[in-house]
Write a structure and sequence with these properties.
Blueprint (H helix, E strand, L loop, with lengths): L7 H15 L8 E5 L5 H9 L4 E4 L2 H14 L4 E4 L8 H7 L2 E5 L2 H13 L5 E5 L16 H10 L4 E5 L9 H13 L4 E3 L6 H7 L3 E4 L1 H4 L7
Parallel strand pairs: 1-2, 1-8, 2-3, 3-4, 4-5, 5-6, 6-7
Helix pairs in contact: 1-8, 4-5
The chain binds pyridoxal-5'-phosphate.
């Protein structure tokens, strides 16, 4: 009985550190995004108390309801939008989030560019790539990435890197490696990849941002 009072957060941090070590990477180069979608402020509070400051949500509306009060108590929280974003919510997303991970089409690039030009907030953006070429998934096709990147740069979006969700139920490493190669080819350093089931693999392949929900909070009740 060694780890009875190890919290899920501590255990995830340890696992990230081990994976980084295996790949000879610095653990400080990996940001843990605690994905708090569907979870209440009461469930989030213990993580804040343990010092976690970077959180991910997948819906603008839900984040707008939950986070202003939490941020009043913890002003240094960094909020990431990891889910699909409708262009008509771009301005709201720019106002609320510090980083937007699922920029995947020209119309959204335009809407984000306008929202940023209109105010003083310029959240970092990840371009999402449909790395497994799956029809039901978001993300731009690999072949469309160069044009989307060019458009995003022209629109003045601060591009942090690339993001993906690899196909479910098969070995993710080749997809992570492909995303890493695409980022290198385009001179991008950020890699948002790796979730509860595969974050260690992602870290060994170069993830700079892992998005972890259920391993921190337990299973989500409803589909999210
Ligand atoms: C929900 C979600 C996650 C976290 O998934 P877990 O398997 O619960 O860790 C990561 N990325 C995105 C885009 C998500 O929607």
């Amino acid at each position: 009985m060694t780890s009875d009072d190890t919290t899920p957060l501590e255990s995830i941090r340890t696992r990230i550190a081990k994976a980084a070590d295996i790949a000879d990477r610095r653990v400080t180069d990996v940001t843990l995004i605690a994905v708090s979608k569907t979870h209440s402020a009461d469930a989030i509070a213990p993580l804040l108390e343990q010092g976690q400051r970077v959180f991910g949500e997948n819906r603008v509306q839900e984040a707008a309801e939950k986070w202003p009060a939490l941020r009043a108590a913890y002003p240094d929280v960094e909020l990431h939008l990891i889910g699909q974003l409708q262009s008509n919510k771009a301005a709201e997303a720019v106002a609320l989030f510090d980083c937007i991970h699922a920029v995947d089409r020209p119309s959204l690039v335009e809407a984000l560019g306008k929202a940023m030009a209109a105010g003083d907030r310029r959240p970092d953006c990840f371009l999402q790539v449909n790395i497994g070429d799956e029809p039901q998934k978001g993300g731009c096709a690999i072949a469309e990435l160069p044009a989307l990147l060019e458009k995003a740069r022209a629109a003045g979006l601060p591009i942090a890197g690339l993001m993906c969700l690899p196909p479910a139920d098969i070995e993710p490493a080749p997809y992570f490696a492909l995303l890493a190669k695409l980022a290198r080819d385009h001179g991008l350093t950020g890699l948002s990849m790796g979730m509860s089931d595969d974050f260690e693999t992602a870290v060994t392949i170069g993830a700079t941002h892992v998005r972890i929900g259920s391993a921190l909070f337990g299973a989500r009740g409803v589909a999210a």
